[in-house]
Structure formats: C-alpha cells, structure tokens
Design a protein that fits this description.
single chain, mainly beta, six-stranded mixed beta sheet, four-stranded mixed beta sheet, 6 helices, 9% helix, elongated
C-alpha cells in the first residue's frame, strides 16, 4: 500500500494517532475562499469543504470523501454553503446545511452546472449551466421549491455571475469565439458591455457599496485583478498583480476589507492598501490510503479494417502531441492505419483526397460516455458526424453495434467496453491541465450532444484550446491505456481523423465545424453520414 501524494505545499507536520497518519497543513495549491458577514471563512481544501474561524486558527472539515469541492459561497444568513462538486462522474451544485450538517444536491441529472452564487435574498442561487449542449447560460434555482429558470441565452458561454449587495444588478462573463466580455445587467435595463477583450476575463464581484466591480484578467503578463469603476464614463484600471492568484471571486467583509486566495493562502487586504496579509489556518487531513491496482493494457481491437490505400491532404494538421500545426503534409493510410506522414508530393496512381483549407485533428474520444437512452444503429453515423471516433461505455448491445459501426454501410464510433477500458482517477483540470480528460458523463448530457459543454468546461477551467483538444484526444487515450493507437496522428495509429472548418487551436469551438471524418481508414462526408443515419433508421 502507499499514500497518494496530496498536492499541498507549505509547512507540513506529520504525527500519529492510534496508528493513523495525518498531515497538518497551512495552505493548499488550489484554494478558493469566501468570507461570511461574521468573519468566518469557507474554503475548498483538498477537494473538501472547510470552515476557518474569522481570526484564523484550526479549520473544521465539513465534507468527507467528496474530493472535488470547488468555489464554496456562504448564504446571506450564514446557515448554508453552496458549492460545486463532481459526484457519480457528473458536476453539479450542492448545498451544505450547517444546522443539520448535511449536504443535498440542487442540480438535476441532465445538465452541467457550475459557478454558483447566492442572490442576496438567500432564496435563489444563480449559476452557469448547459442543459442542451449549446453552451453555458445563466440559470437560477429557487432553493425552497427547486424550480429553475434561464436568465440568459447568448451565443457562446455565459458564466461567473455575481450580484450587487442590494440584489438589483448582475454582472457576468460572456465568452464567444476569441472575445471575452464583462456584462452588467441593471435592474429592468438591457445588458451593458463594460469591457471586451481577447484576454480571458473571469470571476467578477461587486464592492458592497456598488461603486466598482473587481475581476480577473489573464494577459500575456500573467493574472491580475482589475476593476471597473462604475462612474460616468466607466473607468478600467489594474488593481493588483504579482501574486499567484486563485481565480475565484474576491469576497468582501465590508466595503473596505476584501478576501481572496493567492500563493495557496487566505489573503486579506484593505482596499486602499498596497499589500495583502495571510490569514493563518491549520487543517488536519487524513491522507487517502489506497491499494495499488495493476492495470493491464487490453488488446486493441483492429476491427473491420478495409483493404487498399488512400492519401489524405489538407492545409494543416494538429497531430495531438506536438504543439501547434504541421503544414504541407500527406497522410498515407493503408487499411485502417496511418503508415506514413510525408511532405506533400505528386503521387501518380494514388487515391488522393485533398481537403483544401480544412484543418485535420485526431478523432475525438469520449472515454466515459453517457449513451443516448434508446441507442440504435442509426446513432452511429450521427455520432461520427460530431467528430467522435471512439466511445467507452457500458451497454447491452455494445458488441453488436460495435461490429456494425466498424463497417462501411452504417459507420459509427469505435465502441469499447468500460469494463476493459476504464480511465481510473483523474486530476481536476485546474490542478493539472496537461493531464486533463473531459467526458460526456461529467456534463450530464449524452455523448455527442455534450461536446460543446465539454469544450466550455475546459475553457472555464482555464485550459487553452490546445490543452482542450488533448483532453478529449491523447490524454483520454493515455488514461484508458489506448495510447498510441488513438488520440493522435502518428505512424502506426488508427486512421481516425476529423476535418474541421476553422482554426481550433485559436478557438476550440471550430472543432465543432466538422466537414468530414475518416474512421478506420474510410472517408465520410458529414452529409453522407446523415444520409446513412436516415437509411439505418428506415431499415430498423
């Protein structure tokens, strides 16, 4: 047996109590914090929910064995804390009730919910959710009744809502394409765009007197806290930099005193001060003791491979491994595998498919899929048209459909059993963007439909487009021990390719603009796949 390392840096004292080792820690690498009106803090330390006394000191742990708590926020009456967490492989919202010491879900099972904040009335929670795969919108849920309603519906993603202290004004972040904007919704007025930038904007919060809004900006110089002074005209200024900020809303004790997380610590700051100071705390954590499980790489199923060779050519390709694009290359495919990647050349007699200015990316992988309720043969071409070429799932007809979809007439993604190809425990994207994996099950939506939400989740976690494509490509393949056969464009890999219109390394959503797919060495246009899906439905 061994102890899984807890990713926490700082003063660490190890002591024993009846044979059980514990760590006493004073900071965490991914800590976010909120302060209540009585001065107490709530933090998300090591994936659990904690309370720290107002003056610092010994932290009290509220949740156990959740390991995914994020962004806790106090209710106005200080009796409840809302937070987001991943349970049963799906991210949703939870409320911890301090009077009963119990937690309950306030999400349903069909959406991906994040970024919760309380309305000052204490009766509603505003949050970001994708309920249909079209992007994150802002929603509200009435806490006593569970009724919920949508309050925004713009192209792209809306997230990170925050209310003014009087509950009349709402600020949030909008992301569409390469542009980020900070939008203000005054009571009974149309939205006002306070700022538009190519820099990522995040986590706004109102000063209690409503005079300004603080927010985080990711620029080439790093992460800073900026502010919009709500004067006429609006003024935008940098407020603080040169700290290792945790990007989560700044919390206010009053109009002069603010709290945020930086350098793995709770930091308190007077608004007019040049520096912040640490609020010391101590938390005793029982490290998780696990028994190592030997994982054996299953035999990769080279199923239904065609005969013959083709050459694929396009303007640029992202191979899933190297950074950036590779240009002016021909992909040589024999059967269902890539056998060569060579400079563009004349190839007399070869079957050449030239896709012009399109971008080639590796086939996408859903490594823990939530399948449609009534899965049928006709779903295969439809799913393949989204760019997903491999699905890991559990289904009674997995073998039959997998064999059918490996053929030419009714193609579909490669179907692998989750009993053999499980992905195991994965780090949160914020903690390790280089190893992140995102799946449809985590969104609450069905595979294919969840793609836009999966991309949104990675964007909001701070991943670059390149990291996002790896999260649904080579990282997923590595997690399920299927690398190097899928998730990359390389000699010896499966000929699973997606042709998209646009630049997905600048804007991940360009990967949704699928024009054609190569699955198992066979080329299909999206329109042809839709025709095959209709024929499959008519046969069934």
């Amino acid at each position: 047996m061994h102890l899984r390392g807890i990713v926490l840096a700082a003063f660490v004292a190890l002591f024993c109590n009846t044979g059980n080792a514990q760590h006493a820690i004073t900071r965490g690498t991914d800590l976010s914090v909120d302060v209540a009106s009585d001065g107490r803090y709530t933090i998300d330390l090591s994936g659990e929910l904690w309370i720290v006394p107002g003056g610092g000191g010994d932290a009290r742990q509220l949740t156990h064995d959740v390991r995914s708590v994020q962004r806790p926020r106090w209710s106005p009456d200080r009796q409840q804390i809302v937070y987001q967490a991943t349970t049963n492989n799906r991210q949703g919202l939870w409320i911890y009730d301090l009077s009963s010491n119990t937690a309950r879900s306030v999400s349903d099972d069909t959406s991906f919910d994040s970024h919760p904040t309380w309305h000052p009335s204490g009766q509603r929670i505003t949050y970001a959710s994708d309920v249909d795969g079209s992007g994150l919108d802002l929603w509200e849920v009435d806490v006593p009744t569970g009724l919920r309603w949508r309050i925004s519906s713009l192209p792209g993603n809306e997230a990170a809502p925050a209310w003014s202290a009087d509950g009349r004004d709402l600020v949030y972040v909008h992301h569409d394409g390469e542009l980020w904007s900070l939008r203000l919704r005054r009571f009974a007025e149309a939205d006002e765009v306070l700022l538009t930038s190519r820099d990522r904007l995040a986590a706004p919060s109102f000063r209690p007197d409503g005079s300004l809004i603080l927010f985080f900006r990711h620029s080439g110089a790093g992460v800073s806290i900026d502010m919009v002074i709500l004067s006429e005209p609006r003024l935008i200024r940098e407020y603080a930099a040169n700290e290792q900020f945790k990007v989560a809303p700044v919390s206010w004790l009053d109009r002069q005193h603010m709290v945020y997380s930086a350098n793995g610590q709770i930091r308190k700051r007077d608004f007019d001060a040049w520096r912040s100071h640490a609020v010391p705390f101590h938390a005793s954590i029982q490290p998780e003791v696990i028994t190592p499980v030997a994982r054996t790489r299953p035999r990769f199923p080279w199923q239904g491979e065609p005969t013959g060779q083709i050459v694929i050519r396009a303007s640029r390709l992202f191979d899933g491994v190297q950074s950036g694009y590779r240009h002016e290359l021909d992909l040589l495919i024999d059967g269902g595998r890539i056998v060569g990647i060579e400079p563009r050349a004349e190839r007399p007699g070869a079957i050449l498919i030239d896709m012009g200015d399109l971008t080639i990316i590796p086939g996408l992988i859903d490594a823990d899929a939530r399948l449609p309720g009534q899965l049928s043969a006709g779903h295969g071409p439809d799913l393949l048209a989204t760019g997903i070429t491999t699905i890991v799932a559990t289904h009674p007809e997995l073998d039959r459909l997998g064999t059918l979809w490996a053929g030419k007439e009714i193609p579909g993604p490669r179907l692998l059993s989750s009993a053999q190809w499980s992905i195991g425990n994965l780090p949160r994207p914020e903690l390790d963007p280089t190893s992140a994996v995102v799946t449809s099950r985590a969104t609450g939506l069905s595979t294919g439909q969840a793609l836009a939400t999966q991309f949104s989740a990675m964007e909001m976690a701070g991943l670059t487009p390149e990291q996002t494509l790896r999260a649904i490509g080579v990282n997923a393949a590595a997690a399920m021990l299927a690398d190097p056969y899928i998730g990359r464009i390389a000699i010896g890999s499966a000929a699973d390719l997606v042709f998209v219109d646009g630049d997905p390394l600048s804007n991940t959503r360009a990967a949704l603009n699928v024009v054609a797919v190569v699955r198992n060495g066979r080329f299909y246009s999206v329109s042809g796949l839709y025709d095959r899906a209709k024929r499959a439905e008519s046969v069934e």
